[in-house]
Every structure is written in structure tokens, then in C-alpha cells.
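User: Can you recover a sequence for this backbone? Please restate the input before giving your answer.

Assistant: Of course. Working from this structure:
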């Protein structure tokens, strides 16, 4: 089964192709910005390779989650769908944040561009969106809302809804992980206690959903019951619940390691004054 999930690559329709092309384009822009920054830097310092590896790795994980057999198998197996979600929430998002794309933008732009970025970072919108209250609440709402059977079934049946679901997952997960990792110069800097409470607040809805999947005495999603049969769908549903529980725990370790990730490598671009 695992060989099939990793071996059968396919795109999720036209919108899935657009999503994948944008993912590849993000990698090209990132690499280009790193080179531009090196050329503009008076000492020709290179952008840290570790940051680049994290960001490109996050993009690759995103492509694996959506375009490999994992994404294809999500139409027939809730367990595959759950693996897809875990890769986006707990692997791709923190890797992208560890790549410090905002700091790279500061590194690659001239002084006037840095001032504009700094003003944007200090804006009320960015401050609110990256704050622990809004980001964790948005993440929790998206998780719970998209697991409601009617909404979940719509994402299985409608291409636009499925791509929008993935985009929402990635956006809300990045908003949560950015201040946790702390690689970018964002307005909010969380201490160890704040990181733990933030992660716990995000894991609470995941634990709720996992318990719901494990405790249900019948399949919750009709498309999977139609594809697998009642008994197999119920077993697969419980496997999905276990996957969610098992994937949530390592997130605490990543959150506690946030300061180490933030200090990794040289950080050539600091946040300028407004």
C-alpha cells in the first residue's frame, strides 16, 4: 500500500496543476532571491544553505502530499487523506517557516524595499494575523470545520473546494508555525511557555477529531464507505484517527526547538526600523 501511495503520481485536475506550478515557482523565486542577495551584499555573503534546504524541502513535502499516490489515495482512503493533511500541517508548514522567506526578502532587496517590508511587518494586519490568539483560533476552526462530513465530502467531490482546503491548511499552519519557529523577524516572539501553550491549543482540536474518528461506531464519510464497504471504511477511519494522534506529538518537540532553528546559520538581514 505504501509503495502505491508514493509511486502513483497524478495532478488534482487543472486547479491542482496550478497549485503545483505555484509551488515550483515559489522555489524558483526563493533561489533567485538568495542569489540576488549574495550579489548585492557588499561582502558577498551567501544565504544560509540550511535555510534554503528547509524551504525547498517544505515545497517538496507539499508536492508529495498533494501530487503523489498519497494525494491520489485520499479519494479512496481516509487514512491517506489524513497523511496528506499531517504532511501539510506538521511538516511542510514548519519547514517553509524555517526557510525564513521574509528575512530572505530583506536580504535580497535594497534599503527602500527593506523599509517597505518593515512597515508591512509592523502593520496591524500582520501583527494580528501572526499573533498567537488569531493564528491558533484560525487553525483550530479550519481543522474542525473541514472535518465536518458535509464539508469534507464536498472537498472530495469538488476540485475547487479541495484545492481551497489545501490552501487554507497551508496558510493557517504557516501563521501558527512562523512565530513558533521564529526564523523571520515577525512582531510576536514567543517564549518557551508561549510556544508550548500555542502548540497545545492547536493540538486540542486535532485530539478531538482523532477521538471522534476512533470512537465512531460507523463510517462518518459516505464516499469512503461507498468505495471500501462499511467494515473496511470503519477500520480505515480508525487508522486515520491513530495517524492524527501519532503525528500531533512530535510537534511539541519542534516548537521547543524553535529558538535553535531561528539561530541556525548566519542571518544576514535584520529587521530595519520603520
Amino acid at each position: 500500500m505504501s509503495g502505491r501511495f508514493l509511486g502513483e503520481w497524478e495532478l488534482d485536475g487543472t486547479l491542482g496543476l496550478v497549485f503545483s506550478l505555484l509551488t515550483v515557482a515559489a522555489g524558483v523565486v526563493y533561489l533567485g532571491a538568495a542569489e540576488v542577495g549574495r550579489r548585492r551584499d557588499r561582502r558577498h555573503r551567501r544565504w544560509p544553505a540550511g535555510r534554503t534546504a528547509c524551504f525547498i524541502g517544505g515545497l517538496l513535502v507539499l508536492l508529495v502530499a498533494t501530487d503523489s499516490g498519497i494525494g491520489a489515495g485520499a479519494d479512496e482512503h481516509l487514512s491517506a487523506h489524513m497523511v496528506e493533511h499531517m504532511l501539510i500541517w506538521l511538516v511542510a508548514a514548519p519547514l517553509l517557516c524555517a526557510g525564513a522567506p521574509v528575512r530572505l526578502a530583506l536580504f535580497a532587496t535594497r534599503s527602500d524595499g527593506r523599509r517597505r517590508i518593515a512597515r508591512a511587518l509592523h502593520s496591524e494586519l500582520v501583527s494580528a494575523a501572526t499573533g498567537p490568539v488569531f493564528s491558533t483560533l484560525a487553525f483550530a476552526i479550519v481543522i474542525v470545520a473541514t472535518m465536518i462530513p458535509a464539508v469534507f465530502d464536498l472537498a472530495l467531490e469538488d476540485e475547487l473546494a479541495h484545492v481551497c482546503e489545501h490552501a487554507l491548511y497551508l496558510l493557517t499552519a504557516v501563521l501558527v508555525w512562523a512565530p513558533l519557529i521564529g526564523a523571520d523577524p515577525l512582531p510576536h516572539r514567543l517564549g518557551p511557555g508561549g510556544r508550548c501553550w500555542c502548540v497545545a491549543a492547536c493540538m486540542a482540536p486535532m485530539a478531538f477529531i482523532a477521538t471522534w474518528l476512533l470512537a465512531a461506531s460507523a463510517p462518518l464519510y459516505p464516499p469512503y464507505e461507498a468505495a471500501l464497504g462499511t467494515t473496511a471504511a470503519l477500520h480505515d477511519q480508525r487508522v486515520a484517527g491513530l495517524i492524527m494522534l501519532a503525528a500531533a506529538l512530535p510537534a511539541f518537540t519542534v516548537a521547543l526547538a524553535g529558538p535553535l532553528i531561528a539561530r541556525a546559520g548566519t542571518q544576514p538581514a535584520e529587521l530595519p526600523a520603520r
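That completes the design. Residues 2-263 form one domain.
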